[in-house]
Amino acid sequence: MTAPSTIRVAVVEDDSRLRRTFTDILESADDCECVGVFATGEQAMSRIPPLAPDVIIMDVNLPDSSGVECVAALAPRLPDTQILMVTVYQDPETTFNVLAAGAHGYLVKPVMKEHLLAAIREVRGGGVPMSPTIARKVIQTFRRREPAAAAPGKTSLSGKAGAPHATAAHAADEESLAPREQQVLELLVKGYSYKEVSKELGISTSTVGTYVQRIYEKLHVSSRREMMARSRRGAT
Amino acid sequence: MAAVWGGVVAAPAAEVTIKEVRVDGRPVAIPAAESAAAAVSAAAAVRIPSTARQIQVRCVATEDDDARPGAQTAPASASALGPPQGTRLRYRLDAIDQAWRDIPGQFKADILFDDGSAARIGSKEQLIDLENSGWKGTPDTSTWQRHVFKAEAPPRARSVLADFITAPNPQNVGIVAIDDVVLTIERPGRADPIRHELTRDLGIAGDAFHPLANPKGWQRLGSKSEISQVRMRSQPQPHPILVLVDDDPDRYGNWATQQSFPVEPGDLVTLEWSMAATSGRGGDVVANYGRLEPGRYLFRAELAQPGGEPTGIESSLAIEVYVPVYLRRDVWAGAGILGVAAVATGVRAAGVRRMKRRLREVEREHALERERARIARDLHDDVGAGLTEIAVQTDWLRRDVERLAATHTAEVQEAGILDRAGRVCASAVELIRSVDAIVWAVNPENDTLDRFVGYLTHSAEQFARAAGITIRLDIPDDIPATPLSGRVRHNLLLIVREALNNVVKHAGARMVRVTVNVDARQVTIGIADDGRGFDVAAASGPQADGRHAGLANMRRRAEDIGGRLMIDSRPGGGTRVEIAAPLA
Asked: What CATH class has A7-124?
């Protein structure tokens, strides 16, 4: 194995004490490098993209804009960056909104040194944990969006009345869950750990992680589309 | 129940549910009762401040799958055509809307060019908004309109087709009747344009008539062939016409010409037709209202037939728009009167007392909500951040001591520093969790059953994970947003916590199963483990020791919210705790 490359981390946190704590923790780790520290969402949105960090650690509650908005603005511009949200709230609503907006994981305060570093390495390695409550909300979200995506041809009809199915199938691929992903989600909803899911479905734990990551990606894509649709509707 | 045009009577087994109310983007709790009778009673109104800028009500039509006529069967047999479904969802806010409001969709006509080998090489479409499009119940009573659009045959074009499609957007339902379809092909330099009258002879007469009969020259495309139908129009003389009866928000219908007509590149193709239509939306509708005057309103949503005939299936919700206390003139005036009254002693003392009392009540009611939100914020910002600091710092301290211990083992151990630092850190973390629970509990946004269950399962799962116990959750998919008072939430949460605590501390369990069941009257939460169990009678008896005080506590809390607690356990056989709480 080659020496692991350094993980480049940016921090967005309005509390100065926590800001210092985070940078202290990052600096104490050999495999992490802190490339920028920001106190407001505005700073983060304008100054993080050129840095292209590997991981962003972001507080959910920022004074000027919500962390959720900040994630929604940054995630599409930084497709290779993983975002970890830090929250005081255990509240599943907030957590889900954050994940749907484009985050890949979250940490509940207080963030201990070991937890933070573990989460950074985990999210970088693709092992993004998904709790049963979140899995349940993901299923509900896709089920709610399903009718529109699955209506054969309705959305993709324009001008091609003869062959509407190819485009419909394409849209469904991007936005709905594959049967295997659905199975994984259903087990997660019941409280299965990745290890238990892997045993139940006869696949490796890392494959479970891959499925979960793909589910997150689909969630991000479809949430963004929904957000855009909503803002467009709001504008007219 | 109305007889529907075309002679079929609909009996759709469906209902309409008012799913969500958002005020300025934030969801508010909906009272449980949705029947018209309950909604007009004073108890079940959604309260909205008059300062709200946007009020959105989301209604959803739910269908009974068994009642749907063979959704995708071939249209060959006469029995395949069931009554149209009552899937058109519309709404009104009594006192604001004069009539039912629909969200009309669009209709599309296409001119399609092929290269002679059935490969599509070009098309032109005409989108028509279906608002007020003339349909009035039957073809004969409707107002028909003529539509025309033209397209030029592109290079390589050899033939042309036309088609008519419902709802290019998902979720629209309605009726589109089409008659007198004419396709004209003009070639520059050629004297006479060629006219194809595509609906002059549909080859259906007398006995052969049936909505699903096959008209000559036309074919059913689309995702549901029964949408494409044939009906009779009696003017100027009885003749069949093409109709699209779209009763399915997930599918669309299409009437397309069977034949294609020869063209050459550069030909000008004109498609003309008459139509009468109506359209609304099915499945899921969001009603939008702006600022409302203070007062009481009734929001209603109903299911209608595709053609707009009511089905009698309706839901309603009372909305009360109130003036927030800080805007209330009577309150300010009252405060003024109080000031004057305080000077003019003895004058109308009783009236002033009444006014004072009322002032206090109103003030209390509204201040409480603001106060709750403020406390939650303060707790989070001050106490939460401070505790976080303590936890993180002691965590660091512990690590420093650990390093020190490598060289000064004896002294460090003697002093027990490591231990104490660990305990401080753990307490801080525990306190932060408590603050989190309080912040959640006081937030008025969480006063609903679905939020509560979400939070409950979330904390149960974290608790089990931290304790290294396998957890299995069995939670219904769709939990209603029934209002749940803070008192009920708080007590239920503490009962479940206590039960989980027992599982971890006393049961020696490997697995815990948490189940939630909801019906109209109550929510039932079960916590079952595979641990060592205990003798329930002995534990609840007068000699019960302190260890079982928790059980008594759970019982008291259950009684406090009018609920019922059941504990089922025996030594060696695991424990099951079930709490049922009424939803009032």
From this structure: alpha beta
